[in-house]
Design brief:
The protein is an alpha/beta fold. The protein contains 10 helices and 10 strands.
């Protein structure tokens, strides 16, 4: 039996003591993280820090230790499908769309657990007009930016309250990246909370409310986005590498 939802709790997602191991390698150690309702939080850090492992474990796609709370409810024992039904979804790194299925079929798979998939699909097609124009086209023939739009739209088809986004700008042209970040920022207007893992640290912090800096499987620094953007150590670590 799981805890009942505390409607006074403003947290959307809470990770307590999260641990992820692959054999003898401990990828994530005792991670503590909170995303409040209607908030965008970014999780940043170097490659191999454990960011993607954190997202995968949160949605039940990697074995984990610790506690996961969603909208005030302990969902630590939920499987991935139960988590999606409860309001948590992931748009994974690399998009992982189904290339031989059409846009329509990809969206319908994303909405398999939704109560009103046709209504949500219409909202997605309004939000992503390029997907409407290519509705019957196979997903593998789309450009990289269009595939990323489809991946996000597919994640939103489950009508989530919390969305995990893993490297949504990876490999995309600058103009497409602008559109993707506008879409992510706009999720707040829909009442959706976001946990964002993103290689473009500066852009991520510009749209996020708060951020966590992860290294060697642990949170090293956390704070408001404005504080992290002006943090000298982070500037040297991340922003100085940008061309």
């Amino acid at each position: 039996m799981h805890d009942t939802v505390d409607k006074t709790d403003q947290s959307a997602l809470v990770l307590r003591g999260l641990g992820v191991s692959y054999g003898v390698i401990q990828a994530v150690r005792g991670l503590e993280l909170t995303v409040n309702r209607g908030e965008i939080v970014t999780l940043i850090g170097p490659n191999g820090a454990g960011k993607s492992s954190t997202l995968m474990a949160t949605v039940g796609l990697a074995d984990r230790e610790g506690t996961v709370e969603l909208l005030g409810q302990d969902v630590s024992e939920f499987g991935t499908e139960q988590l999606v039904r409860a309001g948590l979804t992931l748009s994974p790194e690399g998009r992982r769309i189904f290339p031989y299925l059409t846009i329509a079929e990809n969206l319908r798979l994303g909405g398999a657990t939704a109560k009103n998939p046709k209504e949500i699909e219409q909202r997605m097609l309004e939000r992503f007009p390029k997907l409407r124009a290519r509705y019957t086209q196979t997903a593998g023939t789309l450009s990289g930016g269009e595939q990323q739009m489809l991946a996000i739209a597919r994640a939103l088809m489950s009508d989530p309250k919390v969305v995990l986004l893993d490297e949504p700008s990876l490999g995309l042209a600058p103009k497409i990246v602008d559109a993707i970040f506008e879409t992510i920022a706009d999720l707040k207007t829909l009442g959706i909370s976001v946990l964002l893992v993103e290689q473009d640290v500066e852009r991520a912090l510009q749209i996020a409310d708060r951020g966590y800096v992860m290294s060697h499987g642990e949170i090293q620094v956390q704070g408001s986005s404005s504080d992290l953007l002006t943090n000298t150590d982070l500037k040297d670590m991340f922003f100085g590498e940008r061309k």
